[in-house]
Amino acid sequence: MVVALSFTVALDEDTLIIDLMSVSSPNNEWIWDTGSGTHLCHDKSLFSQLSMGKPYQMNAYSGTINVEGVGTVKFTHLINNVTQKIVLNNVGFAPTGKRNLISGSRAMEAGCTWSDKQDEILVRNKVNKPILKFTRHKGLFKLSATGYSSDSNDVKSTSINGNRVNVIENKSIGDLELWHRRMMHTNIDSMVNMSKGDIARGLPKLIKKEMNCITCIKAKQTKHYGKAKTKITLSEVLDLVHTDVWGPTKYESKGGAKYYVSFVDDYSRWIKTYVMKSKSQVIDCFKDYIGYMKRLTGAKIKRLRSDNETEYCNDKLKQICKTHNIKHEVTNIYSPHMNGVAKRFNRSAIETLRATIVDDNMDRI
């Protein structure tokens, strides 16, 4: 369904174009627009939080307008004598616009659905709760806000990012323990930080608290080898690449793989992994990695650091390093901490898998 934006009236031999969207409306009135890619508000006083930035142009209101900022609008809306609290995040501030628009496409991206009758549109949230009700009036579907809030305690900061704005969001407080399990026992601080921004869509607001996760204790115990590297000292990508092989696993994959090899760029921490049926495939994987990173970054690998296992210490790898002018650094015997970056990635990957397996009472890998 597309909401009508204009209509034509014939008067004698002339044609009068009446653009409904160019007619000013009260501040408490919002229009449902399935053709708009963003929510838009023309009244600065309605924002509970607003970040001004460099204006950019977009097509709206049957023409081109300038969006001068992005912010949050919070209002209440009455449906069947029940007051709904609505939060519109990342709303574009368009002072030259004449009407306030709620974007149907952004509502859909936020998980909302809607049903339409002849003179009514009812919008429901992810849990099928009615949150917005628009009624048809003079060719447009409108709702009236019953009040606005300037309280921004739970409103996140926003900034202009091209045309990527606007979702309908009423962010609730999530169960930290439940989401810790859903996200495969990810670090608590990382989860809380992710919930504060737009990093993970659909993740509710999480509040940090003391939590003793028995699964993490069982799955993430480790032996301390030495002082860890605390900062990156290189200046360019591919100055140094760490690599390590993990396996064999107890069970083969559907393709018959029992190992994987990881390559970690020391500067960017960009990680590339390959699954393997045997350790002898390390050579082919390294050849592919050289070409892959060349296409991706345009840079060449300068140093490769590995342990002294036979999959790395052989004539084939030596010839590859000579051909591509790569210095191969080998760690000392019984000193895994010297290749700590690759070892740490393997540990994190296996801990994540093991935590999931322990949590589901499955056989260990």
Automatic annotation (TrEMBL):
Transmembrane annotation, as ranges: none
Domain of life (superkingdom): Eukaryota
PROSITE patterns: INTEGRASE
Protein's UniProt keywords contain Transport: no
GO MF annotation terms: ATP binding; DNA-directed DNA polymerase activity; endonuclease activity; metal ion binding; nucleic acid binding; peptidase activity; RNA-directed DNA polymerase activity
Record keywords, A-Z: ATP-binding, DNA integration, DNA recombination, DNA-directed DNA polymerase, Endonuclease, Hydrolase, Magnesium, Metal-binding, Nuclease, Nucleotide-binding, Nucleotidyltransferase, Protease, RNA-directed DNA polymerase, Transferase, Viral release from host cell, Virion maturation
Listed GO biological process terms: DNA integration; DNA recombination; proteolysis
Integrase catalytic domain: residues covered: 232-365
InterPro entries associated with the record: GAG-pre-integrase_dom (IPR025724), Integrase_cat-core (IPR001584), PolX-like_BBD (IPR054722), Retrotran_Ty1/copia-like (IPR039537), RNaseH-like_sf (IPR012337), RNaseH_sf (IPR036397)
SUPFAM superfamilies in the record: Ribonuclease H-like
Known function: The aspartyl protease (PR) mediates the proteolytic cleavages of the Gag and Gag-Pol polyproteins after assembly of the VLP.
Protein name from the UniProt record: Integrase catalytic domain-containing protein
Source organism (scientific name): Strigamia maritima (European centipede)
Lineage: Eukaryota, Metazoa, Ecdysozoa, Arthropoda, Myriapoda
